[in-house]
Design a protein that fits this description.
This protein is α/β, with parallel strands linked by helices. Helix content is about 40%, strand content about 15%.
Length: about 425
């Protein structure tokens, strides 16, 4: 049996399993004994440990059962949030994500397994959460949230969780939540650090704090900078906690406050944010924005976090991987290849004859001295410096720096379009990709 046949057989077996699980859930619901207050015996047993808390009790559990939460992003933040909201008994959970599962997701997105690679995130999330708690309803939305569908989706839910990783969607969610009157629980994490706050809930909205978006080249995500799964998981769990506190009307909601988590030193800090801005463009007294706008145009960046593509250079300052490959096979070597990824990335994989000078070090005199030493090794015939990174973004930034640092006008500095991702896809499929 070949791999394709085996995959097809497994898919059929999974479909049959889902059908039988649905039938089992239906049978269990038919047998449930419902008490007059609205909870079944099974629900009382399941949630008893949190119902023992005076702050929750029967009334609180009924609130959770009748509540709905929308999670935008089924990634490192959305997965732990969803798990704890489902575990607590939130009656309706919506999950929005356009993406399919990749192997790079698995170290932090623990709703998924190796067997799910290539499958829809929201559909697998629904299956996982339904197995965890068959008393609740899960609504998957396999779509990218945008100005056309955001209001229609968000108005169905009581609380919204921003579990995304891009600026355009943050502004979209903020404005949509202000327009529909929904609290927005916003989380973010990168490397060993995380942040958490609540907008539009008895306090400022996102635009009150950040009326203008940052330049696209100043924004990093975990795909470029890395993240430890336990750190992003910590923030995701706390997002769920904030949503539960909002539903239960408990004190201590992070409205008007920013919680900062340092996972390296294990320090939590609370910063007070500025108050609600009466001149805010979306929630102020004379709000200019009362409909959703084009947020990609507003932010100058795409509204997804997968493969951001910066456009910082003229085409004359760039070269395709195909052209570089042809050039590299023609002796004598009259160029230098500089890899500006981090040392850790360079150790994972790198092209032959490349030298590693991380982008973050290019401003240092010592790194420029190292570069000049390598240029001397190539010899007086050197006429070009090519810069490569992971996806062709940092390399463009590096070209701008090097053009100002190299005084010899006869030496051209160009970046390799698409970086090592393009090299793997177009030149050498055996080269690692991450």
């Amino acid at each position: 049996m070949n791999e394709e046949s085996l995959v097809e057989e497994i898919s059929c077996l999974k479909k049959k399993l889902r059908e039988k699980e649905d039938n089992l859930i239906g049978l269990r619901r038919e047998k449930q004994i419902l008490q007059e207050h609205g909870l079944s015996n099974a629900e009382i047993a399941r949630y008893s440990r949190q119902m023992l808390l005076p702050e929750i009790g029967l009334k609180g559990q009924l609130r959770l059962k009748n509540a709905s939460v929308l999670i935008v992003g089924a990634g490192g933040l959305g997965c732990p949030s969803a798990l704890y909201l489902a575990g607590a008994g939130v009656g309706h959970i919506g999950i929005v994500d356009y993406d399919d599962i990749e192997i790079t997701n698995l170290h932090r997105q623990l709703l998924f397994s190796s067997a799910n690679v290539g499958m829809s995130k929201v559909n697998v999330a629904k299956e996982s959460l339904s197995r965890l708690n068959d008393n609740i309803r899960i609504s998957p939305f396999k779509t990218q949230l945008d100005s056309k569908n955001a209001l229609e989706i968000i108005k169905q839910f009581d609380v919204v969780l921003d579990a995304t990783d891009n600026v355009a969607t943050r502004y979209l969610l903020n404005d949509a939540c202000v327009i529909t009157g929904k609290p927005l629980v916003s989380g973010s994490a990168i490397q060993f650090e995380g942040q958490l706050t609540v907008y539009n809930h008895q306090g400022p909205c996102y635009r009150c704090i950040f009326p203008k978006p940052p330049p696209p080249e100043a924004v990093n995500n975990c795909g470029d900078s890395g993240v430890l799964g336990a750190v992003v998981g910590t923030i995701g769990v706390m997002q769920a906690l904030q949503a539960l506190k909002i539903i239960l009307d408990l004190p201590g909601v992070l409205s008007g406050r920013l919680l900062i988590f340092d996972g390296m030193d294990m320090i939590f800090r609370n910063l007070k944010l500025r108050s609600k801005n009466i001149d805010c463009a979306v929630c102020g007294l004379n709000a200019a924005i009362n409909t959703l706008i084009d947020y990609e145009e507003f932010c100058g960046a795409k509204a997804n976090d997968k493969n951001p593509n910066l456009d910082l250079l003229d085409q004359n300052d760039r070269i395709t991987v195909d052209n570089y490959h042809k050039l590299s096979n023609v002796p004598p070597k009259s160029y230098l290849l500089v890899d500006v990824r981090s040392n850790e990335e360079f150790e994972m994989c790198h092209l032959e004859d490349s030298i590693n000078i991380p982008l973050t070090n290019l401003h240092h005199t010592s790194s420029l001295d190292d570069l000049k030493t390598e240029m001397v090794k190539v010899g007086p015939s050197i006429s070009q410096i090519f810069v490569i990174c992971r996806r062709g973004n940092d390399s463009q930034k590096a070209v701008k720096i090097l053009k100002n640092s190299i005084s010899d006008p006869s030496i051209q500095v160009k970046d390799i379009i698409g970086g090592i991702h393009a090299w793997t896809h177009q030149i050498d499929p055996s080269f690692p990709i991450y």
